[in-house]
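Working notes for the structural subgroup meeting. M.R. asked for a predicted model of this chain before we commit to crystallization trials. I am recording the input and output together here so anyone reviewing the notebook later can reproduce the run.

Input as submitted:
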Amino acid sequence: MTAGTPASQAATVMGTTTPAAGPPAPQAAEVLGTAGPEVPGAEPRPAADDAAARVWRRMRELVLGRNERRREVCEALDLSFIRVKALLKLRPGPRTMRDLATELAIDRPYATVVIDELERRGLVARTVHPNDRRCRQVSLTAAGEDAAREADRILSDPPPALAALPPADLATLDRLTAALESW
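Returned structure, recorded in token form:
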């Protein structure tokens, strides 16, 4: 591992020291108190808030800023990422158009555009909802299930820097991300 690489930075963030990574990151006890520039009349912010913001920025950058996997899955399936997300949301089972729009955080007319395209490609089918004939539900076809499986495979492939972390660091990240899933 080379100092300055994402893997070495992750090792440092995790509080471990590898020969190339340098000293460990400060522990929580070291960062208690206040941090950041003082603003006249403002309450001092606890350093833990800054640490949380810093960690969040890093996580956001790792997932959204380095979107090679997003590009890869879009190119592999020849679909926009919102259409890939729709396939993945449908993988557990059929959804109504309303529920799908909500889960994708898009409005219902745009959900219709997304599903129209997936239906034209033979990846989804619309049927009458079994409990409410006024409502349509969307489900994956066999081809859609294959595409969703491929999307999941591509998106689940960890980046090399993450895969290169020592097992103890991966176990710590696993524990921490599992704790964050509950919010």
